[in-house]
């Protein structure tokens, strides 16, 4: 995608999305580079299933510093709790995507100001899979597909734009391939780009759910959906990609675990193609700057037939997961 230095006078929102696109591309390159060097710098945050790597730290620094420099009044909320420190200049991305800038901004968002926008950042969604997929075995592991970088933009509590970078897309071609990695982005009433929208063939009911954070609530809910097949993978961003590319019909996670930075960008892209993401009760998620970060009532996402899936959630699960 062509990029350009900041020019003209597009709406603030479109400039922010255009900047998010290019910094997500840079983030993907950082994620690949850290893995190739093999020194991941892994730190356990709350346990073995809650990890932070050097890639998490560098990517969050890159995204937050780049967007803050260009849009000093926006609110940015990132997953990693990092100390205030100077950011290396080579982590800063100031260019913007020309393709994004050429899209017309929806009228209701054309006059938005920086200070009205909240950006939710997950620098490395699927960190557990990333740490397990070391550079020597990743070609056969399949785990690198799970890894994404997520930048979601919210206004008035709603996810209105999202950018997902998948750093290891096409990783089967080898680590030196110029075609490795891709960036998807979307906005309701603008469209979704960077992938081909597909649906699960033959009306099959395929549920995608957690690979490493399962429990009885999750398994009971998945079974209640009466799926033809169940896919267990890492990363919320990866699961939404499965929905829009026809590999799954529903993403079901009836548990604590995901946070707003996991769901904001994917929700915006899903909405852009007519899908829906809610909690297990069918309630919309809120992305205001002051909300609690945990999605305490779980996550349910579909491309179609959301009503069917919400109707199948067991009462015991609904009682256990309070909004």
Brief overview, please?
This protein has 323 residues and is of the alpha+beta class. The chain has helices spanning 12-37, 54-70, 98-101, 127-132, 138-141, 216-224, 236-244, 260-272, 306-312, 315-320, and strands at residues 3-4, 43-47, 50-52, 75-78, 96-97, 117-125, 148-155, 158-166, 182-187, 191-193, 206-210, 229-233, 250-253, 276-278, 299-302. α7 (236-244) runs parallel beside α8.
Description:
- The structure is a single chain.
- With 323 residues, the protein is of the alpha+beta class.
- It is built from ten helices and 15 strands.
- The chain has helices at residues 12-37, 54-70, 98-101, 127-132, 138-141, 216-224, 236-244, 260-272, 306-312, 315-320; strands at residues 3-4, 43-47, 50-52, 75-78, 96-97, 117-125, 148-155, 158-166, 182-187, 191-193, 206-210, 229-233, 250-253, 276-278, 299-302.
- The strands form four sheets. The chain has a six-stranded mixed β-sheet, with helices on both faces. A five-stranded mixed β-sheet has the order 12-11-13-15-14, with helices on both faces.
- β2 and β3 (50-52) form a beta hairpin.
- It is globular, with a radius of gyration of 19 Å.
- The protein starts with a strand and ends with a helix.
- 49% of the residues are buried.
- The model has no long low-confidence stretch (mean pLDDT 88).
């Amino acid at each position: 995608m062509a990029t350009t230095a900041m020019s003209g006078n597009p709406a603030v929102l479109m400039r922010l999305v255009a900047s998010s696109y290019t910094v997500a591309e840079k983030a993907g390159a950082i994620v690949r580079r850290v893995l190739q060097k093999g020194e991941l710098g892994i730190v356990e945050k709350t346990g073995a299933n809650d990890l932070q790597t050097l890639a998490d730290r560098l990517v969050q620094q890159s995204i937050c510093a780049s967007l803050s420099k260009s849009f000093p009044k926006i609110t940015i909320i990132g997953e990693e709790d990092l100390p205030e420190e100077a950011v290396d200049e080579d982590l800063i991305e100031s260019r913007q995507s020309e393709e994004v800038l050429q899209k017309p901004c929806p009228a209701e968002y054309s006059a938005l100001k920086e200070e009205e926008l909240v950006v939710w950042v997950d620098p490395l969604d699927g960190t557990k899979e990333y740490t397990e997929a070391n550079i020597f075995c990743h070609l056969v592991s399949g785990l690198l597909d799970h890894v994404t970088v997520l930048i979601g933009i919210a206004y008035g509590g709603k996810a209105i734009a999202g950018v997902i970078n998948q750093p290891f897309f096409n990783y089967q071609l080898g680590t030196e391939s110029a075609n490795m990695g891709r960036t998807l982005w979307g906005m309701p009433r603008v469209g979704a780009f960077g992938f081909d929208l597909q649906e699960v063939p033959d009306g099959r009911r395929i549920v995608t759910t957690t690979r490493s954070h399962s429990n009885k609530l999750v398994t009971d809910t998945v079974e209640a959906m009466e799926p033809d097949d169940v896919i267990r993978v890492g990363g919320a961003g990866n699961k939404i990609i499965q929905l829009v590319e026809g590999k799954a019909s529903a993403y079901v996670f009836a548990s604590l675990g995901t946070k707003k930075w996991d769901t904001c960008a994917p929700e915006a892209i899903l909405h852009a193609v007519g899908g829906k993401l809610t909690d297990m009760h069918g309630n919309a998620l809120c992305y205001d700057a002051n909300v609690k970060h945990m999605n305490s009532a779980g996550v349910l996402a579909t491309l179609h037939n959301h009503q069917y899936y919400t109707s199948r959630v067991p009462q015991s699960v609904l009682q256990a997961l309070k909004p």
